Amino acid sequence: PATGAPKGRVRTDAAAVRFVEVVVNGPKSWSLAAALHPEIAAAYDGAQDRAAQQVIGWLAQHASTRVGPRGHQVQVPVQEIEAAVVRHYTSRAGDPHRHLHLQINARVFAEDTWRGLHTMGVRDSLGAINGIGHAAVICDPDFRAALAGRGFTLDTASGEIVELAGFVGPFSARAAQIARNVDRFEATWRLAHPGAEPGPRLRRSWDARAWAQDRPDKVVPKDGAELARRWVQELAGLGYHDPGLARIPAAAAQPVRVGGLDRDAAARDVLTRLGARRSGWNAADVRGQVEQLIAGSGITCGAPARLELAEDLTARALARCVPLLGRRGLPEHIRALTSAQVVDVEADLTARFIGRAAAPGRTLPGNVPASAHPGAHPGEGLAGAGLGWDGLDAGQRQVVAAMAADHRLLVIEGAAGAGKTTT
User: Which of 58, 93, 120, 230 has the fewest CB atoms within 10 Å, measured from its CB?
Assistant: First the structure.
């Protein structure tokens, strides 16, 4: 800013990445409590600031850039990152929603010059980033003390304030809009498919469409204090009453102490949670699950103690991981870790496959082996399904040909994004 000199070769086209952004926020009931009581608002804002600092600190340790000619690049850690924080008090629809936009400059300093941030590495680290942001706030002693001082209690499972959770719905205009969109999509689908029931994949597609459709324009309040007074009046109109001041604020929440957590058991639990969702992960995924576990444990402590706990649990969980790839020096964001439990499940499946393939087989009705049609093109029939043989790459064509053959058992596997579903 002082000299106006660009930080290295800065792209100026429309597709250039200026920064990567993550959001530090919390359940809507936290924002309602902040609207009701100024001391909770101050404590919540302070907790979010401290959470942003912790996220930036983690990124400073784990962000990377790439050095070298195209095709021969290597990942190197960054020496310096820059971040900006923008505070918002409302959602786009004007509902109470205190949150921070944390923006990391896409230009980072490494190897004695300014370079481009490896944005994919940041994207693959969102588990840790989001986990740190949430756990840092929910464990913050000042924030928890402010809530307890007003008689509020936290549901450790959901993170919601128990006394305000029932009032969240009327203050979620965007959520109501999304629900209406989903209801409309479902009604249209049921008219076209009488007697049928939508599956989970279809419902996920409706949810994605509902979020993307009719995103409201930002509501710019003329007076923030007037807007906050309106929220308080709406809460009163909905029948809300303050729970009353706690007699012993410091003890009202009955926080769990850091030393009371069984760390080895927690590390095992983290790997079980990861293995229930996927078969491979990276260190950031582990840290994200660790932060979720801490957030749901009821622990209240300052940043140094929480960070020590999170890093120790992450190290314990990583020590129990099994590498999927044998070579050293893999970029940190590559999901090349698994667990012994996942490996055991895979071995069990493999044994079952072998046993099934060796068992006497039979041709099921409608399954005609490709050998029954000598000379048939492996891609015949794809056009009728709206697909095209020419749209598949060599590996996908090989899979289709194998599927059309007379194998008793065929197992198809590949990395995420390899084209299995398309095939």
Answer: 120
CA distance 130 to 140: 16
pLDDT digits (tens, 9 = 90+) for 119-139: 999 999 999 999 999 999 999
For 274, the token pair is 């990861």
- Our measurement of the distance from residue 341's CA atom to the centroid of its chain's CA atoms, rounded to an integer in Å, reads 23
The letter for the amino acid at 20 is V
Q: In the numeric block, which tokens belong to residue 325?
A: 């790839």
| DSSP summary character for residue 18 | -
Q: Which helix (H) or strand (E) holds 143?
A: helix 141-149
HSE (side-chain half, CA atoms, 13 Å) at 296: 12
- Name the token pair of 113: 């010059």
Q: Could you give the percent of the chain with pLDDT greater than 70?
A: 86
CB 48 within 8 Å of CB 102: no
Beta strands 113-116 and 19-24, pairing class: unpaired
Measured distance CA(16)–CA(216) in Å, rounded: 26
DSSP letter string, 329-362? ---TTS--EEEHHHHHHHHHHHHHHHHHHHSPP-
Q: In angstroms, rounded to a whole number, what is the distance separating the alpha carbons of residues 99 and 107?
A: 25
What are 323's strand-pairing partners? 337
Nearest Cα residue to 340 out of 316, 321, 317, 313 = 321
User: Is pLDDT larger for residue 90 or for residue 263?
Assistant: 263
Reference 146, options 38, 296, 25, 247; nearest CA is 38
Q: Identify whether the C-beta of residue 94 lies closer than 8 Å to the C-beta of residue 219.
A: yes
**Backbone torsions φ then ψ of 58, nearest 5 degrees:** -65, -45
- Give CA 346 to chain center in angstroms: 26
At 23, which helix (H) or strand (E)? strand 19-24
Global pTM value: 0.75
